[in-house]
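Handoff note, outgoing to incoming analyst
You'll be picking up this chain. Sequence as last confirmed:
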Amino acid sequence: MEGRRATLRLLSDCDNACLFCAQRGGEPVALAAGSVVEGLRALRGEGFDEVTFTGGEPARAEGLLDAVRAARSAGFTAVGAQTHGRRLREGALAADLARAGLTDVHLSLHGLGPALHDLHTGVPGSFAEAAAGLTAAGTAGLTVVVNTVLTRSNGRSLRELGAWLRSRGVAGWCVSVPRAAGALRARFDPVFPRLGIALPHALRALAAAQREGVAVFLRGAPSCLLGPFAARCVPDAPRAFDPGRCEGCAARGACAGLDPVYLARFGGDELSAARAPKGRHRRSRAATRRSRGCSSARARWSRTPPRTMQDRGLNGQHRVHPGRTALQSLLRVLLEPHDAVRAHLRDHEGAGR
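Most recent structure output, in case you need it:
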């Protein structure tokens, strides 16, 4: 049986100040309780049976517990929250969310220890708080998947982070290439990694974590730079492609390409169609249509249709790690393109096509 997961953005407010935040500067969002219920009903009516609440930071929403209960009452079989994790440590919030029906959290960690993580979030003490939140989520029986944004600063230390995540019982780990939107527009050179240098470190870290039993994935990287890990790429909206090096590439249909600002800044000299996987994981026509734009309803409720994890035994009462396909379903919604990213892509439409 195949299910579908949606995302519902509750608010834009966040108490982190991440260097690479793609939402910075966008229109403020704060859904009222009635709008949340309306959005959930609309998504159920379209056939979605799983949902992830996103932000900003959804744990800052006063009605998050009510939103989780409403999702369960509407018939969603799995309910997640994308979070920086800091607030999960407060009181019994993680346990209360699990009792309300939350099943999984998608937690952001960008380096092992405060020197790296706090640098990226702009908040002193955020690593210790996020680590405590991760522990609280695991204790509450929630499945935890972690997303790490790859930058110039953290690539060489990712192997240590992967080992730490394994020791904390994290079910899945995704390393994501950022988009040059929002806050990153003004910090591109000091933050955005040169992929030919940073990705090999990320791949070694992911390989080590995979050997220790963590399900690993990547997002937003060109297929030809990933070797065998191209099979671990989470589907992503295509960015831009070098007209000379990408034309005729066998992996083009499933490749994320390069951020258009990155391509304009560095060119495509790192790319090679000869190194790309041949004929694997081609993008479906439906996925291509989904990535090229959005209807007015989608602009309001961002969503994506991954496979279900219901048959993997995921629930809020027992800490059962879902299988690889289910984890990929969770990770697909971590960086679902929102209005700010879509505006960034429109601004550079046609770049490097």
